[in-house]
Amino acid sequence: MMVDNVTLPLAMRSNLLSLNDISNQMSKVQEMLSTGKKVNSAIDDASSYYTAQSLTNAAADLNSLLDAMGQGIQTIQAANIGMETQAVLIAQASGLASKAVEIFASEEENNKLSNIPSTMPPQNLRMNEPLMPHNEIVEENLTDEQKGYMESLNQTLAEIDDVANDASYKGVNLLKENTLSIKFSSNPTSLLVIKGVNSTLKGLGLKEANWLTMVDVQKTMEELTDATNRLRAQMSQIGNYYAIVTNRESFTQNLINILEEGADKLTLADMNEVSAEYLSLQTAQRLAINSLSLAAQSARSVLIPFAAQQIYAENQTEKADKTAVSTQSEEK
To answer: What is the CATH number of the domain that holds 183?
Structure first.
C-alpha cells in the first residue's frame, strides 16, 4: 500500500515553521553584520534606501567640486607667495636706491666744492664758458660705485618681473591678469570668478633705472614707494579671494559630512543591537531544535504500541511457521 502524504503532528509542524522563520531572520542579521548596514537594498526599505542614495550622490558631487576648490587654493597660494617675494625684492631695491641717494648727495657735495670759482679762471677755461651745474652728472661721469648700485637695482627689478612670470599654477598666472573660475555647488550662480592682477614691472609702475642725477635716483625711490602701495593693494585683493575659497572649502567639507552622516543614519545598523539580536536568534534556534526533538519523541511514543503489536504478530507467525514445518517432518 502506497502512502501519498505524510501528515505531521501539529507540534512538529509548528516547530518547523518556527525554525524556518528563525533561519530567515538569521540570514538577514548575518548580512547586516557583514555589511554593517540595516538597509542594503530597496527591498529592505525603499524610502530609506533611495533617500540615502540621493544624499550619497549629493555628497559625491560636492566632493568633486571640493577637489577643484583645492586646486584653486593652490593657484591663489602660488600668486600670494609670488607677491610676497616681490615685496621682499622691492624692499631690497628701495634699500639700494636709498644708499644711492646718499652716494649721489656726497658726490654732488664734492662737485660743489670743486666748482667754486677762484679769483683767476683756470687756463683751460674760457671766461665766457658756463660752469656745469652741480646736479647734472652725466652717466659717463658716474663713479663705479654709483654705476654698481644702479646695476644692482636693475637686476633686482628684473627679478621682480621674473617672479611675476613664474608664479603660475597649472597654466594660470594670477599675477599676469589671468582669471580663475571656481564652482562651489551645482547651482550655476554659486561661482567665484577670481580676477588676476598685474604684478609685472609695468603693472607696478616700475621701469629700469637710468640715473644721471640725484633727481633720477629720487624719482626711482618714489616709484618704488608707489609700487609697494600697489603691491599691498593687490595682495589684499588676492588674500580676500583666498579667504573666500578657504571658507567655502571648509563649508563644503562640513556639508559633505552632514550628507554622509544623514545617509548613514538611514542605512547603517547598530552593531551592538544587531550582535545582540543574532545571539538571541541563535538561542531561539537551539530552543526550537530541542522543541522539535521533543515533538518527534512524543510522536514516536504514540507509535510504540502499534510497533509492539506488529512485532508480536510477526513472532507468532514465525512460531506457527516453525510448528507447521515440524509437524510435516514428523508425518513423513
So the answer is: 1.20.1330.10
Question: Residue 50 domain-assigned?
Answer: no
pLDDT tens profile 40-54: 888 888 888 899 999
- Please work out, in degrees rounded to the nearest 5, the angle formed at the alpha carbon of residue 244 by the alpha carbons of 191 and 174: 75
Q: What's the rounded Cα separation, in Å, for the pair 180 and 68? A: 11
What is the pTM (predicted TM-score) of this model? 0.66
Question: What whole-number distance in Å separates Cα of residue 234 and Cα of residue 82?
Answer: 11
* Structural domain includes residue 122: no
- Shared domain check, 292 and 251: no
Q: Is there a single domain that holds both residue 71 and residue 147? A: yes
Buried b (16+ CB within 10 A) or exposed e, 292-308: beebeeeeeeeeeeeee
Q: Which letter does DSSP use for residue 140 in this model?
A: G
Q: Are residues 291 and 274 in the same domain?
A: yes
pLDDT tens per residue across span 112-161: 666 555 444 444 444 444 444 444 444 457 888 889 999 999 999 999 99
CA separation, residue 60 to residues 66, 73, 78 (Å): 10, 20, 28
